[in-house]
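$ fold --in a.seq
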Amino acid sequence: MLKLGQKVVIVSDRFEQNLPVGEYGYIIAYDRNADNVFDYVVRVPKVNRNFLVPGDDVELEETLISQEVDRVEREALIDFALATRNEELFRRIMNGEDQSEKSGGSKDVQSREDFIRQINLKAWI
């Protein structure tokens, strides 16, 4: 739940209320009515109006900035990998770091007998 006075950005207009998508606003009130789908009252200074908006239509400015920074960093790393012909870096970026750590770790390959022995032990428990 967002706090009163927080700076937010309107990211969508789910109920087609002609919200100024992409504009900044400030949370000025909560709408606690259980019969209403709107969560917040947002003041948008640029259009000099208050809007009732659901929680999905607004996002914190800090969150959007961090998402944009991550996207730009990823694009820069991809450009660097392509420019230096670093195939390993390129594959790691495109597949994600988590997957590369999993594939880079040592895997215990069990023999068929060890696998059957392990299953039989679990069956007795």
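$ fold --in b.seq
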Amino acid sequence: MNDLLSPLLTPEGRALLDEVRGTAPADELAVATRLRRAHPAELVSAALGQARLRQRAAAKFGDADAERMFFTPNGVEQSTRASVAAHRARRLTALGVTSVADLCCGIGGDAIALARAGIRVLAVDRDPLTAATARANADALGLADLIEVREADVTEVDTAGYDAVFVDPARRGGRGRIFDPEAYSPPLSWAVAAASAARVAALKIAPGIPHEAVPADAEAEWISDAGDVKEAVLWFGTEPGAVRATLLPGPRTLLGRGLPDPAVRPVGRYLYEPDGAVIRAHLVAEVAEELDGGLVDPTIAYITADTLRDTDYATPYEITDVLPFNVKKLKALLRERGVGNLTVKKRGSAVEPEELRRKALPKPQGRNAATVFLTRVAGAPTMLLGRPTRP
């Protein structure tokens, strides 16, 4: 399997990678035809495939790193976003960690962030191509002195000589995403047991993990980047039982205080949409208290309040209209307000946003913008019309 990568590491392969950099999909056939006159067809195909992967990876790793790194399709899909990996590396550094056993290292995204933080890394993966790719990336970014890549079964690796253990189990199978933590590879129970071998441990898990599956002696952290929830992490050796939501860039961190659910109240002048990490961490009550607000419905994570306040953990909207769900009324109101740009958000509604946008605004002509929330208010299907605002 390494033969898919090794030809690209030769001088000829590297020269081809430089030549095909930035090739647009529409130009691939013409470029391939030209290059095959002077290079083996398999090498040209591999270079163009790698160029496509690098373009996809730029969103996670940035252009500068992605153009030098090597990727596999699964590696691009499953690797940690660089900003998230850097946050984790900063936390480990603050805990005094100088060496980490990175188990299930993939193509090396986390190992790279750890090494750049000055941490010595043992990066382990059992897949030959994946391990070879991680090794190539350590070399490409000048981090080979800090990253040792080992092709091995992580369950057979001795981690006793490392300050910390980081485990990123595979959460995808032949049928897509795996939601049962015990169906991870390796299972979450094994990862938790492995954590006990180190002073500090971090286990990357799916953000949808049930809270009852979080071990009592673990800290649980949900992380979002630019508003998108990326992952959850179980920390050992930090603050047992703590729950936090971390928002990147920043970081801005909200620590749970065990507050009861907020009270339900009538819709006020403002609606606050909590960040996804806050919702996943079950910390909506902490944000509601900060805003002196309540919920629009006991099952919906929208906060309403009468005053506009600054918060890092929710996006505020000024509500202009509260309507029972009725597409015809919404269509008439949008026409009356001259709305030509409609954003549709939903929580607790079965209606698809695109469907509503198409029906309520079939021929966008107005110059104004609006946001409609499809939700429930005190159990009733409701439309809240408003616009983003700032304190």
